[in-house]
Specification:
There is one protein chain. This protein is α+β, with helices and mostly antiparallel strands and 138 residues long. The chain has one domain. 48% of the residues lie in helices and 21% in strands. It is built from two helices and four strands, in the order αββββα. It has a two-stranded antiparallel sheet with strand order 1-2. A two-stranded antiparallel ribbon has the order 3-4. Strand 1 and strand 2 form a beta hairpin. The longest helix is centred in the C-terminal third of the chain and has 37 residues. The two termini are 19 Å apart.
């Protein structure tokens, strides 16, 4: 395999892994969008934000990407007045997660598009390599 094709495949594969990890974090956020604390003094689920980092592949000499962490989003929790709820405080307010489902769905769509773009790069690189081999056999 030519080093340039190998480099392209390595970069695209790292993008696939990073976007897959991003989608897992987003799915976790959506799954916990309405999870409250079990007690009045507890905090509900806190939204997590994926953190990406460029990483040099010294063998191929290209930058790849990876998700290094998912940090908590420190924005305020949403308060709703529900005095009968088991997690309601003395004033009757319940803390809900700082997850906006619409934002998460938009992030998921962006992650899907980035994943598909990286997949297309891999498919096109493989097709070019196959076509090159076919031409060399003639």
């Amino acid at each position: 395999m030519d080093d340039k094709i190998g480099s392209v495949l390595q970069v695209a594969a790292s993008g696939l892994r990073a976007q897959s990890a991003r989608m897992r974090v987003i799915a976790e956020n959506v799954a916990n969008a309405s999870a409250t604390a079990k007690t009045p003094d507890g905090d509900p689920y806190r939204r997590r934000i994926p953190v990406f980092e460029a990483e040099l592949d010294r063998v191929l000499g290209v930058d790849t990407v990876r998700m290094t962490n998912a940090v908590p989003d420190m924005t305020a929790f949403e308060l709703k007045y529900e005095p009968g709820h088991p997690a309601a405080n003395a004033e009757g307010y319940v803390k809900y997660p700082n997850v906006n489902t619409l934002t998460e769905l938009m992030d998921m769509r962006a992650a899907q598009r980035a994943y598909e773009a990286n997949l297309n790069v891999i498919e096109n690189s493989r097709a070019m390599l196959t076509r090159t081999l076919d031409l060399l056999r003639r």
